[in-house]
Structure formats: structure tokens, C-alpha cells
Amino acid sequence: MISVVNLDISNIASVLHMLNKIGEDSCIVTKPDQIKTNKIIIPGVGHFDEGLRRIHSLGLFDAITSLVKVNAVQILGICLGMQLLCRTSEEGDLRGLGLVDADVKKFRFSSESKLKVPHMGWNVVSAPKANPLLPVTNEEQRFYFVHSYKVVPDDPAITIGTANYGGEFCAAFQQDNVFGVQFHPEKSHRFGMELLQRFVEL
Prior knowledge:
Elements: E1 2-5, H1 12-21, E2 26-29, E3 39-42, H2 48-57, H3 61-69, E4 74-78, H4 80-84, E5 88-89, E6 102-106, E7 119-125, E8 141-147, E9 149-153, E10 159-164, E11 168-175, E12 178-181, H5 189-200
Parallel strand pairs: 1-2, 1-3, 3-4, 4-12, 5-6
Antiparallel strand pairs: 6-9, 7-8, 10-11, 11-12
């Protein structure tokens, strides 16, 4: 059973559908006492501060940080959810959940660059080392991205997936029982399904 946090700023139906497709039960969380599992997923699309305001308004901030830090509950942040796990973001002023030693920075390109922000569409994600979510393989693993900001960890060693958009960036991380992916596994067909399956089986 997976607890899926509903911040009402993303279509969590896609996440629930993908979990159902791999045969995993899930429950929707909108208040602390609904978290009764050892795994949490925070999906999200949108503004950093808005995501945090919703976490606070639902009374989930302290509940999530306590469960992850004290009870070692495993958590996976997807897209904005990944960024909310960090300390700060250039997109907003509020403090993040602070579950990983990382901050969120905006993509910046020179005026001559043809790259656009947001980074949108399919991109290849590579695993620089063995990890629980992404296999180290020569096969191209493609995932769907939509984001204008990227996670910058203090320690690059927590990066378990990289992608390139005007330079290499952290597309996935793991710090102990805290996982984050900048892409949308629920929209990434086979590779996304396999990643969620691995998270479920941890």
C-alpha cells in the first residue's frame, strides 16, 4: 500500500493509475492520520511556495518530516514533489521539507542559446551508479520532463540519475530513505512503470 499525497496541484489520477497497473494498492492522503503505510509519494506540478502552502494547510509538514526522519518511512517526490523535499528554491521564499541536502535553482541559458525554459518533453536519464530505482544499463531510458528548475545537491554522490539540458543536471536522487525524480514516471510508459515497481518493492 502506497500513500499518495494529494496537494491538488497535479493530476494524481495518473500516479494512482500507474500504481494500479503494477498491482499496487494506494490511498489518497489529504491529512496526517491517513498516512498508514511505510511508503509515501508526493506528486506535484506548479509553484514551489504554493506546494508548501498546501502541505502546511493540510497539516502534513511535520507529519511527513517526522515519519521520514524518525520512522524511516520511504518517500518519493515526483517533479515539484522532488523539489519540495529540498531546503530552498529560487522559485519561492518558503522553506522546503528539508529532507535532502539540496537546493533548487532555475535553468539559465545565454541569450544565444536555443534552449527554452521550461525543459519539456522526453529526455534520456542515465544512472551513474548502482541504485534501487534506475538500472545501470547501455539501453536508453527515456522519461518525460516538464520543469523550469533543477535540484542541485550539496553532495553530487546522492545523484542516482542524470539528464542533459544545456549541461548535465540531477534528474533523480537518493539520500537514505528519501528519493526524488524530476521527471514524471507516471507519464513515461515502460521505464516509468519499472521505476515505480522498484520503489514499491524496496
